[in-house]
Design a protein that fits this description.
disordered N terminus, 4-stranded antiparallel sheet, single chain, about 425 residues, Tachylectin-2, Chain A, 2 helices, mainly beta, globular
């Protein structure tokens, strides 16, 4: 190669590198300018896309998850023992039961461990305690009937073995049991005793009067000084048993009994202010009516419950509808033979019965009737065989809130248990 050519070649190469450097510089400047222009635009697009993906203010409000709320645990409603089981001494005889003001449960019974003398106990919220002195009657007390006034004063009526088996009524004055009127005021031996209060809170008793072996039903009322016969004569026309009494809100007294003149069927009478008149037809039950009880329902209609010998000695309840006596549900509705039957009305129109149920080992059964539809019938009040063992006497009462309480004796030794259907807080 010639020297001149070499010089030209070198110069060409140098010129190419110089051009490249100028071009590169221009591109760098262009890139800088482009980045200055595009970066804000790109940032704006990113921010716009992010904002577009957010929900509206209203949507955000709806989508907010509420804070967790502590909900109370569901407390089961079931039969619960009041206090403890079998709280009484052994051999409690002729159990009677009532609820006082504040839903304080009371029981009365003859103390079989002390010659059958009368004892009354109540549950004070912590334990079962004796009301006044234990065994306060002069001698044995049978056919006991317990009731509590609206102001919380307990009364008890009983056949007083210390006074010729005549009728005695006592009331608790807050410190001791006081005689109402005189002890043993009935003419003869008093059996099948029932106790209530009239519209003026005067105590009234119905019983079978054994004077001169008449064995008729008599009703007497305490007038503040002495006991006076209600009406001019006996309630029943002839021999009778299982006397029951109920008082309407208007003061009318009703008496129910097993009427021997009508084949030992059920008869109910009411006092019209002068005499006792038959309600409906005398002897209206299908057969023998043992253990007869009477109450007035929420409409003040008389209702009776009894062991129905015409229906396999099962439980039957009947109600007077203003014209005639009609069965409440089916006659003989219990699953097995029913004894020691008791009944109580609910303010909402329902009826509760309790009895010793022969179909479940003679345990305590509780049934409820609610006439809410045409197919209304007696159903278990969560109560087929609520007692832990075979029972003796059974009684039922209802709190002001409609909570049923049941008292019963254990058949093996006569000890008393009280249960209620509700929660521990009721």
């Amino acid at each position: 190669m010639k020297a001149a050519d070499a010089v030209r070649g070198s110069t060409g190469i140098c010129c190419s590198f110089a051009g490249c450097r100028r071009f590169t510089g221009i591109m760098k400047k262009f890139s800088i300018i482009l980045s200055i222009i595009l970066c804000p635009l790109l940032l704006f697009m990113i921010i716009f896309a992010a904002c577009s993906s957010l929900p509206s203010a209203d949507a955000r409000t709806v989508a907010v998850k509420p804070a967790a709320v502590d909900r109370p645990a569901v407390v089961p409603v079931q039969w619960q023992v009041v206090g403890c089981r079998n709280f009484s001494s052994e051999k409690a005889l002729d159990l009677s039961f009532a609820l006082g003001s504040g839903n304080i449960p009371y029981v009365a019974f003859g103390d079989g461990c002390n010659s059958g003398r009368l004892t009354v106990m109540k549950y004070d919220g912590q334990a079962w305690v004796t009301v006044g002195a234990a065994d306060f009657s002069a001698d044995c007390a049978t056919y006991t009937a317990l009731a509590v006034t609206s102001d919380g004063t307990p009364y008890v009526a009983y056949q007083d073995c210390g006074n010729g088996q005549r009728l005695t009524v006592k009331r608790f004055d807050g410190s001791a049991w006081q005689t109402v009127g005189t002890e043993g005021f009935s003419s003869g031996a008093a059996s099948y005793i029932s106790l209530t209060f009239d519209a003026n809170a005067a105590p009234c008793v119905a019983y079978m009067d054994g004077w001169n072996n008449s064995n008729r039903i008599l009703v007497m009322k305490y007038n503040g000084i002495s006991w006076q016969q209600t009406g001019s004569g006996y309630v029943s026309d002839g021999e009778a048993a299982y006397a029951g009494i109920a008082s309407a809100r208007n003061g009318t007294l009703y008496a129910a009994f097993m009427d021997f003149d009508c084949g030992r069927k059920a008869t109910v009478k009411k006092y019209n202010g002068i005499s006792w008149e038959t309600v409906g037809t005398a002897g209206f039950s299908a057969g023998y009516a043992y253990g007869l009880r009477i109450v007035l329902d929420s409409d003040q209609k008389p209702v009776v419950a009894y062991t129905d010998c015409a229906n396999g000695q099962k439980a039957t309840v009947m109600k007077f509808d203003g014209m005639s006596w009609r069965p409440v549900g089916a006659e003989g509705f219990s699953a097995g033979q029913a004894s020691y039957i008791d009944i109580v009305p609910s303010p909402d129109g329902a009826l509760y019965t309790v009895y010793r149920d022969g179909s479940c080992g003679n345990k305590t059964a509780v049934m409820k009737y609610t006439a809410e539809h045409s197919s209304a019938s007696w159903t278990d009040a969560a109560g087929a065989g609520i007692s832990a063992e075979e029972c003796g006497h059974t009684c039922i009462a209802l709190s002001a809130a409609g909570i049923p309480y049941v008292a019963y004796t254990r058949d093996a030794d006569g000890r008393v248990t009280v249960m209620k259907y509700g929660t521990a807080a009721d």
